[in-house]
Structure formats: C-alpha cells, structure tokens
Amino acid sequence: MLRELTEANGTLSLSGLERATGLARSTVDRVTATLARMGYVRFDGRDVHLSPRLMELGNAYMSALRLPALLSPHADALADELDESVSLAVADRDGIRFIHQATRRRAMSLSFRIGDLLPAERTAPGPLFATQWTAADWQRWRERRAADPRDLSFTAVPPRTYGGDAEDDETFAHRTREASAHGWSLDDQLIEPGLVAISVPVRSTPGGRIASVASVVSHTSRHTARGLRTTLLPRLRSAVRAMERELHAARPPEPGPPPSDLALWTGASKQQLGREFIESLARGLTVLTAFGEGRPELTLTEVSQATGLARATARRALITYEHLGLVATAGRTFMLTPRVLSLGYPPLSRTSLPEIAQPHLADLTSRIHESTSLAVLSDSGEEIQYTARVATARVMSVNITVGTRLPAYATALGRVLLADASGDALPESLRAFTSHTITDRRTLTEALTSVRAQGYALVDEELEEGLRSIAVPVRDRSGQVVAALNTAMHASRRTPRECVTDLVPELTATATRIQTDLHTAARFTHVPLT
C-alpha cells in the first residue's frame, strides 16, 4: 500500500487503494488505520496521504549509507560552480536511485526526486554501475527488459514510444564497455529529448567498488552531450576526487541511540485500537528503523535488542523484507537496500513547509475554533509573508489570504521571527498603525528580547483596532527560527491573559508537531519554506 501511494504521488482514496492493491476493503481500512497510528499516513476525508514521518524509513537507509552526509556538500559546491544540476545516485539491482539532488532554480527544471528509480540503460550512471554486474545481474536485466520493454514500471521516466529490441540491448552493453574503458559515461537524450548528463563513479576505496555515481545534468539548449564531455568533465572529475578523499578518510561514526520502547508502543496501540491496529505490520516496520548512523549492518540479535522485539518477530520481519528486496544479507548480518526509498520517499522529498504545516493548522483550528496561520520573513526582513492558513467558520473572522505581506514589527508573527534575527531587519521608520503600535526602536528591541525569553509574542491592537494575535516559533534542525505560527481574533473574544493561558500551550504543541515533521523531512532533503 505504501508503494501504491508512492506511485500515485502520495495520495489515493480508500477505494483507489482497494483497486490498486487488490486487497479487501476491510484489510485496506485496517492497514491504513495502523499506518495512521504510526504517523506514516493521514486521512483527509476518504483520501489517504503520505505523511513526512514516513521518511524516517528512508532516513534510516540514508544515514546508514553515510554517502549523502559525506558527499552532498561537494555536489552542492559543484552545482554552484557550474550553475548546473548535480546528482548522486546508487545502484538498485538493474536500476539506479538518486540519493541527492543539487538543483538550479530555472523554468526548465531537470531534477528527479530523491529515491526515484530509473532504468540503468536510460541513464548516464547506469553503464558505470553495469561494469560491476555479474552474469546473473545481466540475465536479470534482460528478463526485465523483455517483460517491460517500454519501461512502464519506471514511473519517474516517460515510457518508451516503442519496445526495446536486441539492438538496444547491445547499445547498452557497448556503453558499458566504453564506461569501463573511459571511467565516465554519457546520457545523450535517452530519458527524454533535450536532457543530457555526464557521470563519473565515486569509489569506496582506491580502485575499489563504485559506491555512488556523481552526474552533471543539463539540457541541449545549454550543452550538447559532446560539450558536457569537453567542458564539464574535468571539473566533475576533480569534484569526484574530493568526494573520494572525503569518503576514504572518514572514520566510522559512533552508533547513535537506537529507537526505544517500540515493542511497548505497538503493544499499547493494539490494546487501545483493538483489531483495527495490525500489530505485526507496525512491529515489522519498526525493524527498518533499527538501522541508521553507525548501525549500517546488524545481526538478528542486535535488531531484536534495538527494537525490543522478540528474536522470532524480528526474524520474520527481516526474512519478509529480504524477499521484498528491502533488506540484504551478508553472512550473519542484515543491511538496508536502496529499495527502502520506494516507501514514500520520492513524493515526500518535494514537500514544502506549508504543505507540512497545513494538516497541523487544520487540527489546531478545529480545537481552538480560531483561524491559524504560518508565516516567514520576506527577503528584506521587514515584512512577513503568510504561507499557510486555515480559517475558522465565524461570522466575524480575520480575513487574510496566503501570500499576504504585513510589516513584521507590528505583528505577533513578525516579532517571533525578528526576535531570532538580527536587529538590522528593523526598518528605519516605524509607522503607527493604531494608537497602540510600538514606534520607538528601543521599546521594540526590549519587546523582542522578551519574546525571545518567553517563547511567544502577543500583539494587542497594534496592527488594527480590535485585532489581537499571539504567535510561537517553528525551528529547523539547527534550532533556528524559520517560521512562526499564530492565531488571531477580535479582542473581545479572549483577554490577553486568556490568550497566554489557553492558546500558547495549543500553539506550542502544534509547533512541536510541525517541527518533528520538518526535522524528519529535512534530514536529507531541502524543504522550501514557501
């Protein structure tokens, strides 16, 4: 079901899931109820949506792999230098999956999503990975090509207009031989017209196996395939050498803390929800979170200890995941495979902060019966911009739409954001919107100091007569305030004291939930604030 939701770009109706999976409706209801309890999906009416927390499964693979953390700064720097998109990919059997994308902001976007699966023969990294294939790997690839000649199972790429043939197969074999001889590979419009890329392998040890492939991606209006080779290949090779030095010199990290009390949590959830909660499904998924930074390979005993599950339960889960291709074995140890990224990562890797916040705002609005909003600072730092909002059903309510800009110094949202920013963001002249507006810079600076200390801002009729607003911060993984969450109302509905005692706890709890999703989503991806 998670894979079907992933293929559907993150959203399907319950009846759509029933049709896509072939499962009975009662089974679909129980599975989605279990996934919702785990925070992996959410309901919107009769539609099921993937939730950012599901990315913790892919994050377990990415942190165990270590490559994104070690290599992505070099990829980002190369993209800035060349002003072209740069990607990192790993092999997934006879396909490739992206683990990092450094994209350029252009109307003609050339980026795939992190976790997207592409057929090896239609990419630049594919021939490089194929240089390491065994005879069995080549046979599996030929069988897949025969069964799916138009690449319909690869939803991240346009299907072929015609079925592949023996000549196409030989072309890929020839490209692989050339990649082995030259140490680089080209994609000359194999995925779709106009798209070109050049790739160089990143090896785990000097002369060893290919750990990842770095690619520069462009389009034919900027570079021809030949032009990529002559103008950009030298710089790509230089960047790859820096990546390899980083990779070879890196020491194994100390294992981070494994998940705790997972078995107790699933047991408690089963008691609370009864037959609607499939405990075996929940416990099986928790097994994937046992892996992570400093824990790339685990024995059965270590998985059992990390999750608190019985060895028999952990063993059944691992055997199932090995059959599904999510887990591989090496002797007595188990490790995650790139296929874990197929569980929701591609659509969720494009999630923005407003999309993360929207369902949480809806829940908050339903609880406090007031409109709620999320805002960020403008580039100048002098205004706030509303990026998400849920209005309450009242005859008299605050009428603000997404995209609205207001002066930061006269709003609760703005003061929360300014309290964490430099004082240079304050405008030279502070206009009085009402008789209550703070227009003295020293007084405003003192107010911002108080906001920073108390963790919320209350602005009472400073922007408009009768308008009272209270806001709290939303922080990123580093602790920096990147957005603010508020509710606003007519001053007659709640006193300032009631705003603090009744609303601040609700706002803070909601901000914490937004932060949890943001931190999960932003661990290995860029989450746009707007």
TrEMBL record:
Biological role: May be an activator protein for the gylABX operon.
Identification of the protein by name: Glycerol operon regulatory protein
HTH iclR-type domain location: 278-338
The keyword DNA-binding is annotated on this UniProt entry: yes
InterPro entries the UniProt entry points to: GAF-like_dom_sf, HTH_MetabolicPath_Reg, PcaR_PcaU, Tscrpt_reg_IclR_C, Tscrpt_reg_IclR_N, WH-like_DNA-bd_sf, WH_DNA-bd_sf
Keywords: Activator, DNA-binding, Glycerol metabolism, Transcription, Transcription regulation
Domain IclR-ED, chain residue ranges per copy: 53-249, 339-520
Superkingdom to which the source organism belongs: Bacteria
Species for this entry: Streptomyces luteogriseus
GO MF terms, alphabetically ordered: DNA binding; DNA-binding transcription factor activity
UniProt key word Transmembrane: no
PROSITE patterns reported for this sequence: HTH_ICLR, ICLR_ED
